[in-house]
Amino acid sequence: MECSILKLLIPFVLVLPGVIAGPLSRPSKADTAYPHLVSDLLPVGLRGLVLAGLIAILMSSMSACYNASAALVVRDFFMRWKAELSDREQIAIGRRVTVLMAALAAVIFVGLLWKRGNTAGAISGGAAGFGLGVFLFPIRPSAGRWCRTLI
Question: Is the pLDDT of residue 13 over 80?
Fold first, then answer.
């Protein structure tokens, strides 16, 4: 019974700031209601606490995505090719996948913030990077050693 009451509180927590923001700050768009409330009603210390909470939520979600993608790649792909991988090898592969996913997320994030970035540039940059990797890997397979020093 107590859990159902807590579950019923979630819509109020999500909807109530928007209902309060309407008459108080008259935001021009619905997306700006919460930032208006935070900047207009909260003191400076609580603003920082709200920002820290939002950043913590973002970091937690990204960590869960990285962990899930590493587990998916190791279990669904590498374990099919080589079923006798030790735990240590699985962890090493998972860490490499996590580094690759973080690098991909950083590239996407920079692409979103860069004003001159466009679709054609993103596709050509991705294709050029992939082609360079395919070209350089057979020539110099030891090029990945620097990655092992990070892990």
Answer: no
pLDDT tens digit sequence for 85-116: 888 988 888 898 898 888 888 888 888 888 88
User: Which positions ≥6 away from 105 have C-beta within 8 Å?
Assistant: 62
Read off the DSSP letter of residue 28.
S
State the first-to-last Cα distance of the chain, in angstroms, to the nearest integer.
47
* Secondary structure element (H or E) that encloses residue 68, with its range: helix 44-72
Closest CA to 32 of 52, 43, 18: 18
AA letter at 133: G
Of 102, 95, 88, 99, nearest to 71 (Cα)? 95
The alpha carbon of 141 is separated from its chain's Cα centroid by a whole number of angstroms, namely: 29
Of 38, 14, 13, nearest in space to 24 by CA: 38
Q: What pLDDT does residue 138 have?
A: 65
Read off the amino acid at residue 21.
Answer: A
Residue whose C-alpha is closest to residue 36's, from 44, 45, 51, 25: 25
Query: Which of 21-25, 70-74, 75-79 comes out lowest in average pLDDT?
Result: 21-25
